[in-house]
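Q: What does the predicted 3D structure of Putative alpha-1,4-glucan-protein synthase [UDP-forming] 1-like look like?
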Amino acid sequence: NTLYDPYSEGADFVRGYPFSLRAGVPTAVSHGLWLNIPDYDAPTQLVKPLDRNTRYVDAVLTIPKGTLYPMCAMNLAFNRELIGAAMYFGIMGDGQPLGRYDDMWAGWCTKVVCDHLGYGVKTGLPYLWHSKASNPFVNLKKEYNGLFWQEEMIPFFQSVILPKKCTNAQECYLELAKQAKEKLGPVDPYFNNLADAMVTWIEAWEEFNAPAKVKNGTA
């Protein structure tokens, strides 16, 4: 007696849902899925090169508070006003010791921030058709460190606690940068650089998103 998405057109709440909880919360991130070529890491790609995802589920689910997920940027929408400041993909890729974790890093950061600020994160519809497989040998070079470091990154995000004084995405993200440097910096100096880049990102965000000034006041 449950519903995937009680907010979908034509749906209603079944018994047992308090009226005080039926209003919902603002959705900050919508993470769509895809069919055909799955989003595997390089080792799994090499072991299962012919795997295809054919299961379509006509549903939208809310990712529960306190639950992480591996966000992919290929089919993604987000509310820039609510969470844009935390949607930074980090310094990853060519010349860096970590690649193919940029969107997942942003996903873990934004999920922690959304949980703290009381915003929703959805996954499910809409789907897209993914037909271009990436090269697993190239991916392995990019992912190699991450395959080990994710054993430290995930527990970090699972245990991070943001203080109540953080009331917007910018403040939450700066606190995340501070804690990432403290907890992940000992894993590898790369995380110190990443944390510094997160701070620089917020500085740039606030500079380019400052309220417009007008004569004798602000706009």
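A (community wiki): The structure tokens above were generated from the sequence. The chain has a mean pLDDT of 93. Helices lie at 42-47, 80-83, 102-117, 136-159, 169-184, 190-208.
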